[in-house]
Specification:
Elements lengths: L1 H4 L1 E11 L5 E3 L7 E6 L4 E7 L10 E11 L4 E9 L8 E9 L2 E5 L3 E3 L2 E11 L2
Antiparallel strand pairs: 1-2, 1-3, 1-10, 3-4, 4-5, 5-6, 6-7, 7-8, 8-10, 9-10
């Protein structure tokens, strides 16, 4: 599966999913941009930018590190070595994932918003 992930991916959709299953715009707006890079030696980096543009910190998110694939469980792990948010350094984010042709779908780890437990749904298309 590693070979199917290696390359550059462009963000085409980022949504926030509520406990009810309702899909809403993610925290980066209706049409955020971004790139996700997986290197064959296990390195990764992600950068996301808000739409519409906002102040630097509120409108941008990035981290880098290593990635691991657990095909049996359908999980992709990002081991954070550096992040715009320093508290994330040392954490491992687990994503459910699916690769279909030139598309990659990730379901991010759960997070809390206004007392609700939500998760992110990200869709990417292969650039190279």
């Amino acid at each position: 599966m590693l070979k199917h992930l290696v390359g550059v991916w462009k963000l085409v959709a980022l949504r926030s999913v509520r406990p009810s299953g309702e899909v809403t715009t993610g925290w980066l707006g209706p049409n955020p941009g971004g790139h996700l890079i997986y290197h064959e030696q296990g390195h990764m980096a992600v950068q996301l930018v808000r739409d519409p543009p906002a102040a630097a910190f509120e409108g941008y998110y990035a981290y880098f590190g290593r990635f691991e694939v657990d095909e049996a469980k359908g999980l992709l792990r990002h081991v954070v070595l550096g992040s715009l948010w320093p508290a994330e350094v040392g954490h491992t984010f687990e994503h459910r994932f699916e690769v279909v042709g030139d598309r990659l779908v990730l379901e991010g780890p759960p997070f809390d918003v206004d007392g609700e437990r939500r998760y992110s749904h990200l869709e990417w298309v292969r650039v190279s």
